[in-house]
Write a structure and sequence with these properties.
alpha/beta
Length: 313
């Protein structure tokens, strides 16, 4: 495990650990306001925390942190944690929180102090995420050009920092990642803050870009990993994997621990509200009456993945 003193001296993106418990409320980095403003929301109870997850105010690892801090806050407020767990499990279907909620409820029933168990888990998670970034950096070569999609909560700048320490210069192409633009709003923003060379492209430029030989590796995250190695990630990941396979470009996935599902066919894909596709920050991008279909994730089969980089918890 990465020593604590090393963790404390490293430079982290605000997205690496975007949630903090501060007394009687939880501070949540509002990712929907980036890059224009670095704004934190306050959740004073589990209902407000669940609302933040549903509204995608935080995502990826931020959701995991918010779940754990929500249990901590709810315990201090003497809430029924089984009710809290039920509310959390109902927020978003594709990234199942049941593994986390079952774990916390198990701790509550054991003799170990719940707060100590949760804080210990979070410290381990932080160290393991750093180790994961280090492992990815070892796959890189000097002058590698990496294509990434969506956002992996602070890991891309960390990967670039590790590569830089090893004398390897790397650069990134980042898809905009429509319709929420997590690529251009979040990943490009945090890479620029870390002084890493980054260029944004629209989602439909990937095949052309790869055909020009401008990309040497593709690295993406995953919201769900099944037992057979299939992954669910932000919509658009599947088509990038297909194109990378066609052009023989390595396709790496930064993974969470595997769920109990056997394959990607069992993953429930979240269908977001149509207006999220038609309206962005109050601006209507399409006719009001037109139908819209917004699956938030797609499934990439294991056979298209060159290597999984696992979160070893």
């Amino acid at each position: 495990m990465t020593p604590i003193w090393i963790i404390k001296t490293m430079k982290f993106s605000p997205l690496f650990w975007p949630i903090q418990l501060k007394g009687n409320f939880i501070d949540i980095l509002d990712e929907t306001r980036l890059p224009q403003r670095l704004v934190y929301l306050k959740a004073k109870n589990y209902l407000e925390a669940c609302r933040a997850i549903k509204q995608m105010k935080t995502r990826a690892v931020g959701q995991v942190l918010l779940v754990m801090y929500t249990f901590l806050l709810s315990k201090r407020q003497n809430k029924n944690l089984a009710i809290v767990a039920k509310a959390i499990n109902a927020t978003r279907p594709t990234l199942s929180f049941k593994f986390l909620t079952d774990m916390v409820l198990g701790w509550e029933q054991s003799k170990a102090p719940l707060e100590q168990s949760i804080l210990g888990f979070l410290e381990m998670l932080k160290a393991k995420r750093i180790e994961q970034a280090r492992e990815v950096s070892k796959l890189l070569k000097d002058k590698d050009v990496i294509l990434t999609h969506c956002n992996v909560s602070g890991l891309m700048p960390l990967i670039a920092e590790f590569a830089r320490e090893d004398g390897k210069r790397v650069s990134f192409y980042v898809t905009e990642t429509r319709p929420y633009l997590q690529g251009s709003r979040l990943t490009a923003w945090e890479l620029m803050r870390a002084k890493v060379d980054v260029t944004i492209i629209t989602d439909n430029m990937v095949a052309y870009l790869l055909s020009l030989g401008k990309v040497t590796k593709v690295i993406v995250g995953a919201d769900h990993l099944t037992l057979n190695g299939d992954i669910a990630n932000k919509i658009g990941t599947y088509q990038i994997a297909v194109v990378a396979k066609y052009f023989k470009i390595p396709f790496y996935v930064i993974c969470p621990p595997a769920s109990r599902l056997k394959s990607g066919k069992e993953i429930k894909i979240e269908i977001r509200p149509p207006d999220e596709l038609k309206i962005y920050q109050g601006l209507h991008l399409a006719p009001k009456e037109v139908k819209a279909y917004y699956p938030a994730f797609d499934v990439t089969p294991a056979k298209l993945i060159t290597q999984h980089i696992y979160l070893k918890v």
